[in-house]
Amino acid sequence: MWTYHNPVAITFGAGCFDRLEALVGERPYLLVTYPDAPFTALADRLTQRLGPAAGTVRDVVPNPDIADLSRQASEIAALETRPEVVIALGGGSVIDSAKVLAASAQGFTAVRALLSGAGAPDDWQPLPLIAMPTTAGTGSEVTCWATVWDRETATKRSLDHPALYPEAAVIDPELMCSMPCALTVSTGLDALSHALESLWNRNANPVTATHAVVAARTILEVLPALVAAPGDPGLRSRMAEASLVAGLAFSGTRTAIAHSISYPVTLRHGVTHGIACSFTLPMILHSLADADGLTGRGLRDIFGPDLRVGARKLAGFLDGLGVRLTPAGYGIDAAEWENILAEATDGPRGRNFIGAITTLHPVSPLAA
Questions:
Q1: Which of 17, 122, 127, 264 could form a disulfide with 172 if both were Cys (CB 3.0 to 4.6 A apart)?
Q2: Which residues contact 291 (CB under 8 A, 6 or more apart)?
Q3: What is the architecture of the domain spanning 178-351?
Q4: DSSP assignment, residue 271?
Q5: What's the CATH number for 9-175?
Q6: Which residues of 36-59 are buried (b: 16+ CB within 10 A; e: fewer)?
Q7: What pTM value is reported for the model?
């Protein structure tokens, strides 16, 4: 028996940024975005259509920290007009921050309760959220969780509740055409990780697997071409669609061992999330060379009948994008690597993994 549910209303296509007005209606809104100049221009374009925001959070940074989110929530609570909807305009960190701020509509206590696993208060009612991703990778526009970092304790937490699914997702590939190369690669590899992590997952089902195979095959084809031609609108659209479909895959399964490994790699070594997730993918794929069932069929649909060869091809794909394929490449020695693996397999994402890993060994790239 299996189930699949995703309640997010999706609008996809070039120019659909201008459909936002119909989704917001007359509701006072809170805008959450980045401080950089391109987002200021997009925010201006948005307010010209919707009117002034009830409040704006512009100081979102990558990997949002709980201390910053608590401060931002306090500032929102002091607004003269109470927002009735939150608009997230940006990448994964913006959408995750917007979910936390939507969840804190009645105070940050509810957020802390959810993060601690205690559950939300009985009268908790988060604000509805409209997510407008400007990167192709996060998938957060169609999931009900947000990553929250706590640098004081060097931990990563997850805010996770069905009420945090966005009300709507608006994916306009035109917003992604100016993404720099490094961001294009790291977010694209995050999407690839989402697809593969949903396949080698105890929660996989025929719907998630179908999404995962389509997303992974598209990313493997499109991402190198997009690096070579970053301004190509057709490639941007295909990459945005693949990221969305990967999001629909792991929205039904959550992630697994690669993401669990990635968190300490990001926290301790400052490795960008998408790279921290993806450099272990060939090793994990190689460990599943004899996988059967839904996972094995899905992986062979992507990589061909011999998954050991497929792992080497995946290593070559990553190597061609400049990804270092060994823990040592990120300053991780053998002892720390074994500790990271032990911690990762014990975590909730590690327990989603269908395999049994005691160690992982780098895979030699096979030229495409």
A1: 17
A2: 200, 299, 307, 354, 355
A3: Up-down Bundle (1.20)
A4: -
A5: 3.40.50.1970
A6: eeebeebbeebeeebeebbbbbee
A7: 0.96
